[in-house]
């Protein structure tokens, strides 16, 4: 689950107005004063539109204008352009640190002293040692010039910073994590600034808090080791001196940083030896990278050293082996791949991962993978060694599935996905009896607004489920499995196929002030799972394909600016954060309605955008609309509140913009 990380914290307090006092002063300097009324202008827009003959809705974010407030300080979190101390990185080893940068600014008109406190967040994966973490800062004046030199606070996660009016301090919090962590382990740190001045005035709010977080970064390797004999199956004919085994090893970095100088070693079992150059059936070892695998002189190990594997990159290695004098019919020929890497400085291999996760040949694993259920399944770095096992023993078995597809659909939609399962083996019928071959349909990247419905065989090929004509498939009790025999009845002869249809329904929302499912997706995987040998021929490899369902529609965003009424909107700076306005000024609003579909033929029609103004402002009758594409701008339905504009069409990736303004009342109500 992604942590709820606040982008920044802004404290905005009207001290004297809140106390009912004017003209107050003290030794620290004059307090903030105001005689104007204080009220909020809160507004929000909504839209309805039609896609594929289905009505859809969208809601904008709320924006608030504080009229005539005074007195504030800000605590902003950011280590760079736009990251706001969110999901910074930290090494998985013990005693590592991460720097969080904050800017504390005194935007009032009196000198103040701020107490800085560090504390660990809740609902995360690890804590920082706040007592051994440090806080350092550099004060700057309003022009950005340093005031004095840098200062370090070493006081068990607490210290004070004095700032004159309009001065600000750039704060570096160096947070230390004592313990070893797994990949993506999330550590949340809260940084709080408390104003001495505001506390002394008994203000309602005296503190501002930023929530930082860092995630553990490390390579995580998914190792797949598979083997195929010269017969194209798992049968190794010991009576054939020309028999051989082709091995394919894939190593994928499923971590969140690149792996560098990685070592890959595959060790052959008793009874097998790599075929060397000059020997019969020799095939040179290959790699999908520029690093060439090497075979040891005794032919028992294949090694790759100094291999770089970037995030989501997959390295594929191949080599060929034959029997040696130790091979017998009862031998279990299985090879094991071991990955060694350094997560920090390429000097010490602190990461060790085996392809079968059982510490074969005395290899003790040490990785940073995330266990989901004990050690049986891992969220990242799932290894598969079972397909490397061959047995001494010319029937062939192969089941294939058609490629899935990816679709963009409306927030509210009904869809049918189809998959064709084909028997591409020779001389063997598949799924002729119950429990011989299963298939599963599961969300591998899940979204609760995307639902997998009925699974059926569309016997009349009309693209929908008809109870009288089609075969409805049900899961086997207490499992995720469907039985392929039910779909085929008599099984699949070689080259024969069956098409499985799957209903997928979406029930998403497009609310930028709450739950917004636009651009969110679910990946659905359908896997074919043979269950055992047929006529003594081992089961073929499991095969799978995926389909991605992405919800799209209208993304309605609202922005505002404050200025004198009649100001040219092209000169305004738009924002969706809280701002201020003086009574008598105008609040300018901009509504952006974007068709988020990314491919053609996904036009959205009859997009109606509505804005209802509050009583404390007066509409200025200056509605303007355009699009950034070929479609026409919105047509205003009527002048006044509610302000309503209708787009006839917005094509894919096109944004329609509406601007207008409303004048702020002198009294807070019209």
Folded structure, characterized:
This protein is an all-beta fold. The protein folds into four domains: 8-34 and 70-216, Immunoglobulin-like, CATH 2.60.40; 221-367, Immunoglobulin-like (Sandwich); 399-547, Immunoglobulin-like, CATH 2.60.40; 554-664, no CATH class. The strands form twelve sheets. The chain has a six-stranded antiparallel β-sheet, with no helix packed on it. Strands 6-5-46-50-49 form a five-stranded antiparallel β-sheet, with no helix packed on it. It has a five-stranded mixed β-sheet with strand order 9-17-16-11-14. The longest helix has 5 residues, at 15-19. The protein is flat and about 100 Å long. It starts with 7 loop residues before the first strand and ends in a 6-residue tail after the last strand.
Quick take:
This protein is mainly beta and 670 residues long. Helices cover 2% and strands 48% of the residues. It folds into four domains: 8-34 and 70-216, Sandwich (Immunoglobulin-like), CATH 2.60.40.10; 221-367, Immunoglobulin-like; 399-547, Immunoglobulin-like; 554-664, no CATH class.
């Amino acid at each position: 689950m992604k942590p709820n990380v606040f982008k920044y914290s802004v404290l905005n307090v009207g001290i004297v107005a809140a106390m009912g006092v004017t003209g107050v002063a003290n030794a620290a300097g004059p307090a903030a004063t105001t005689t104007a009324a204080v009220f909020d202008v809160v507004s929000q827009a909504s839209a309805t539109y039609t896609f594929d003959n289905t009505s859809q809705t969208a809601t904008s974010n709320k924006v608030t204008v504080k009229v005539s407030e005074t007195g504030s300080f800000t605590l902003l979190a950011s280590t760079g352009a736009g990251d706001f101390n969110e999901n910074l990185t930290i090494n998985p080893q013990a005693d590592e640190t991460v720097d969080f940068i904050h800017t504390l600014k005194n935007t009032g008109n009196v000198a103040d002293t701020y107490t800085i406190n560090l504390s660990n967040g809740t609902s995360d994966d690890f804590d920082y040692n706040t007592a051994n973490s440090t806080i350092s800062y550099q004060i700057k004046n309003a022009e950005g010039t340093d005031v004095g030199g840098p200062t370090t606070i070493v006081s068990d996660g607490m210290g004070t910073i004095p700032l004159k009016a309009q001065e600000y301090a750039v704060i570096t919090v160096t947070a230390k994590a004592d313990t070893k962590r797994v990949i993506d382990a999330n550590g949340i740190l809260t940084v709080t600034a408390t104003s001495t001045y505001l506390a002394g005035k008994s203000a309602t709010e005296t503190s501002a808090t930023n929530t930082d977080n860092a995630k553990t970064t490390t390579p995580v390797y998914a190792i797949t080791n598979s083997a195929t004999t010269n017969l194209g199956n798992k049968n190794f004919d010991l009576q054939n001196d020309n028999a051989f085994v082709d091995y394919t090893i894939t190593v994928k970095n499923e971590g969140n940083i690149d792996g560098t100088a990685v070592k890959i070693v595959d060790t052959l079992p008793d009874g097998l030896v790599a075929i060397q150059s000059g020997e019969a059936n020799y095939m040179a070892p290959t790699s999908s990278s520029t690093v060439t695998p090497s075979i040891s002189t005794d032919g028992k190990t294949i090694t790759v050293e100094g291999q770089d594997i970037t995030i989501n990159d997959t390295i594929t290695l191949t080599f060929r082996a034959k029997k040696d004098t130790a091979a017998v019919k009862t031998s279990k020929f299985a090879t094991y791949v071991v990955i060694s890497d350094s997560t920090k400085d390429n000097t010490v291999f602190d990461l060790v991962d085996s392809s079968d996760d059982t510490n074969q040949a005395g290899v003790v694993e040490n990785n940073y993978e995330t266990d989901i259920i004990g050690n049986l399944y891992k969220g990242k770095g799932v290894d598969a060694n079972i397909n490397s096992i061959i047995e001494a023993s010319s029937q062939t078995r192969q089941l294939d599935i058609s490629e899935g597809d990816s679709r963009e659909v409306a927030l509210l939609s009904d869809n049918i996905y189809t998959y064709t399962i084909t028997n591409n083996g020779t001389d063997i019928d598949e799924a002729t009896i119950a429990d011989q071959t299963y298939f599963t349909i599961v969300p591998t990247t899940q979204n609760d607004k995307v639902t997998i419905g009925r699974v059926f065989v569309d016997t009349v090929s009309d693209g929908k489920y008809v109870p009288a004509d089609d075969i409805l498939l049900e899961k086997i009790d207490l499992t995720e499995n469907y039985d392929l025999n039910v779909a085929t009845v008599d099984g699949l002869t070689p080259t024969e196929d069956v098409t499985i249809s799957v209903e997928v329904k979406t029930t998403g929302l497009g609310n930028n002030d709450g739950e917004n499912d636009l651009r969110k997706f679910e990946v659905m995987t359908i896997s074919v799972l043979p269950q055992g040998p047929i006529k003594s021929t081992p089961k073929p490899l499991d095969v799978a394909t995926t389909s991605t369902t992405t919800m799209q529609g209208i993304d309605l965003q609202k922005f505002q600016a404050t200025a004198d009424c009649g100001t040219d909107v092209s000169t305004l700076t738009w924002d969706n954060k809280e701002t201020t306005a003086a009574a008598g000024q105008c609040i300018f609003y901009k509504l952006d309605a974007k068709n988020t579909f990314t491919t053609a033929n996904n036009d959205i029609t009859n997009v109606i955008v509505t804005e209802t103004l509050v009583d404390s402002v007066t509409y200025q009758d200056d509605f303007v609309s355009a699009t950034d594409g070929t479609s026409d701008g919105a047509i205003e339905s009527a002048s006044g509140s509610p302000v309503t504009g209708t787009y006839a069409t917005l094509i894919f990736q096109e944004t329609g913009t509406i601007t207008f303004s409303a004048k702020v009342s002198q009294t807070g109500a019209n």
